[in-house]
Amino acid sequence: MLPLGVIGPTQILVIVILIIVLFGGKKIPELMRGMGRGVKEFKDAVNKDYTAENTNETTAPTAPQAPRNETTKDDDAK
C-alpha cells in the first residue's frame, strides 16, 4: 500500500484514460507538440536572459561621457 499523496500506477492509468476521453486520440499529439514548443521557448528565453547577464558582466565598461552643457530659455535671456 502506498502512502497518502503518492501517485501509483492505478491513478496514472485513470488520469490517462480521462485525458483520452476528454481530448480524444487525435488531439493529444497536438497538445503534446504545443507543450513541447512552449517548454522549448521558455528554456530559450531563460538561456537568452542568462547569457545576456553573463555578457554584460564580462564586457569592459565604456568610457564615461562628458556632461552636455544644455541651455534653457532662462539662460538665453540673461
Q: How would you summarize this macromolecular structure in one to three sentences?
A:
The protein has 78 residues and is mainly α. Helices cover 67% and strands 0% of the residues.
Could you explain how this protein is built, in words?
The chain is mainly α and 78 residues long. Helices cover 67% and strands 0% of the residues. It is elongated. It starts with 8 loop residues before the first helix and ends with a helix. The mean pLDDT is 77.
Element layout with pairings:
Blueprint: H1 9-23, H2 27-58, H3 73-77
Task: Kindly provide the radius of gyration, computed on alpha-carbon positions and rounded to a whole number of angstroms.
Answer: 29 Å
The rough form would be described as: elongated
Query: What does the main sheet amount to?
Result: none
Structural class: mainly alpha
Features:
0% strand; mainly alpha; 67% helix; 78 residues
